[in-house]
Design a protein that fits this description.
mainly beta, single chain, 28 strands, four-stranded antiparallel sheet, globular
Length: 355
């Protein structure tokens, strides 16, 4: 009986292995996420806002939307690529843009019309269909249904000249920051923990709101608010406590470079785009920083996105007449930056696909 039991057990194990192998053969093979990227930029001599697209991690670029009524007469301020087909952008004149076909066609999405000439500066999307937008005049918009219906929150609370940055950590937890522009307190930080039902403000120690805040981002339980003169604030406990800090050695001639855009790959690895052609990088949550030179010192680096700790793209902005505004790329963690394309229009933000 023991021999028969052992033989039966061996047969059953072999059948399980065969069935398991067959199932694995039938399963679809996961494909690598494609390194598609989009850039948002100002209106140029064609009188159309700039949207650029790369299908090869920033090596080559093509323009999208030129000649489309959706992009006529506007500056495209920010862009968020959900995936290879669905991309959203914000623009001047209270314009929200969308493509569902990877940029072959762009359409305008109706926004609340309280401020028709307003500049929509920042966009953040969570769970693919929950969209948050911030802009001038203290405007914050939210759509929870993929852009069909929009809510606008009380602008009296957001008493800012411009809410330059917004980031949705979850559908309920959202941070928004900006600059007041007058007086000794120049920065403004607000957050909601219930999807915008109620809002509260952050008042950092040592009057750190004296710095104008440009943006906010988050990874895991770490939140970073960043902005003027290399200054930033970081919370490692989800916003309960905050530490004031700054990027050392970023600037020239006694000046301090602004942190214009910051991307977190995780709680420790951050890339930042700064004035004077600088890029800042940390792999230990801001304890140590490396300042990287792109050799584009004439330009403010205002937009950056990173695929990983080696591959990143950044775009520039000129406060004067644009003179060959660059898209730059690194494939070795910022040891070298190479100009990939030059445009005669200011470029504002850049986005790899998020999934």
């Amino acid at each position: 009986m023991k021999k028969i039991t052992i033989l039966f057990s061996i047969v059953m194990v072999m059948m399980i292995i065969i069935i398991s192998c067959k199932k694995n053969e039938d399963d679809p093979v996961p494909t690598e996420r494609k390194k598609y990227a989009w850039v948002a930029g100002d209106e140029d001599s064609t009188e159309y806002g700039m949207i650029l697209y790369s299908a090869d991690a920033g090596e080559t670029w093509v323009r999208q939307g030129e000649g489309s009524a959706a992009l006529q007469g506007i500056a495209v301020e920010d862009i968020w690529a959900v995936d290879e087909n669905n991309v959203w952008a914000t623009a001047s004149d209270n314009v929200i843009l969308r493509t569902k076909d990877g940029g072959q066609t762009w359409t305008r999405i109706p926004a609340p019309d309280y401020y028709p000439n307003n500049e929509l500066m920042s966009i953040s999307i969570v769970n693919e269909t929950n969209i948050w937008i911030s802009g001038g005049k203290g405007v914050v918009y939210n759509s929870t249904d993929d852009g069909n219906i929009w809510a606008m929150f009380d602008t009296n609370f957001f008493h800012c000249d411009g809410l330059q940055g917004i980031y949705a950590i979850s559908p309920e937890k959202v941070y928004v920051v900006g600059g007041i522009g007058t007086g000794t307190i120049r920065g403004f930080i607000a957050y909601t923990l219930n999807g915008g039902v109620s809002w509260d403000s952050v008042f950092p120690a040592n009057n750190y709101n004296k710095w104008e805040w440009i943006g906010v981002t988050s990874s895991e339980n770490t939140i970073v608010v960043y902005g003027g003169k290399s200054h930033y604030m970081v919370s490692t406990d989800g916003g309960t406590t905050w530490k004031n800090d700054s990027v050392p050695g970023a600037g020239g001639g006694g000046a301090k470079a602004d942190i214009n855009h910051l991307i977190m790959l995780n709680s420790q690895t951050w890339w930042g785009a700064m004035d004077m052609g600088h890029i800042c990088f940390t792999k230990d949550g801001g304890t140590n920083w490396t300042i990287q030179k792109t050799d584009q010192g004439y330009y403010f680096m205002v937009g950056l996105d990173a695929w990983d700790s080696q591959l990143a793209l950044a775009v520039g902005f000129s406060s004067g007449l644009p003179k060959g505004v660059p898209i730059v790329k690194t494939t070795n963690g910022g040891a070298d930056w190479e100009v990939k394309k030059i445009y005669n229009s200011n470029l504002n933000k850049i986005s790899f696909i998020k999934q």
